[in-house]
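Recall the central idea of this unit: under ordinary conditions, the amino acid sequence of a chain determines the structure it adopts. In this exercise we apply that idea directly, starting from the sequence alone.
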Amino acid sequence: MNSKDALKKSRRTAGNFSDRRAGHPRLGHRRIRKNSESGNVYAALDLGTNNCRLLVARASKNGFRIVNSFSRIVRLGEGMRKTHYLSEEAMERTLQALQICKSKLQNSNVTRSRLIATEACRSAKNGREFAKRVEELLGLELEIIDHETEAYLAVAGCASLIDPRAESCIIFDIGGGSTEIAWLEGTLGGPLADPKDNIRVWDSIPAGVVSLAEEYDGHNVTRASYEAMVESITEKLAGFAEKAKGAENAPYFHLLGTSGTVTTLGGIYLGLPKYDRRRVDGLWMTEQDMTDIINRLIQMSYEERVANPCIGTERADLVLAGCAILDAIRRTFPSRFLRIADRGLREGILMTMMREDGVWHQGA
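Accordingly, the structure predicted from this sequence is:
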């Protein structure tokens, strides 16, 4: 479907979600409606450099219950490292994915939503132009967030997985175009607590799996090129490492990672014939587990990585770039354990909106 077809379909199906002239608001982070029959339904959309993801949920006693979801690799930032522009092909792929998201939002009777875009739209010279195009064609209002907001939402989305005994934790989100990392100190006040007061240092590293794989050829990775990637990221981590110096010395310190890289490693570690979020989210891996799997991946050919059911064609050229970022973090902050989170920005958005609405104080 091209942009013109998307526009025609949008006009046929959008109804009150896109007709501003009729006095109806666009669907975006400012939209709030009440639905007395089913209670508040919240939606969070994360449009990144590599993925387009949507979660729709209702609040529950201990968090929220997912009622609809969508995820597709769109590679919106493909080729941006050289051109600094979103390509027409990438924008078309993304529009198709966003059209599906729009349908799910409508069918789920969403009452409050926040739709964010991160590094690709933030950095591309035509990023804001694309966001405007999305609004005009689909009636979806994308909020291009800054690095600090992205880092906070990543932390908010997976902080509940921190070991409650840990007095220090490094949380990181390896994205397609950037990597957000934060040091949290002190124990949290429970799984529903806002972690903002525990964040001591945060940073956004200007490198992700797509940009790094394009720079170092993710198809053909040797031990030498892998180590070059690790060294490159280690240098970019230096400023954060200095500010978070000694974080790894606190009791029960561990790493907590959220991204396709760490979830892929988790799936390989478990030997899954098909990726299963329920088995990977919250999984603990030891330092040796990670080292063994990464070494195996480096020894694989591109074709062998494609054949792995937890990698496939969509991640075969990206997975080792992600591992290099992970290794740079591991070597900077040595830890016996990594906990894997198959959750992140979308969950952070949902938790933040529900916390703002006071749903857990209302006995939701």
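Residues 223-243 form the longest helix (21 residues).
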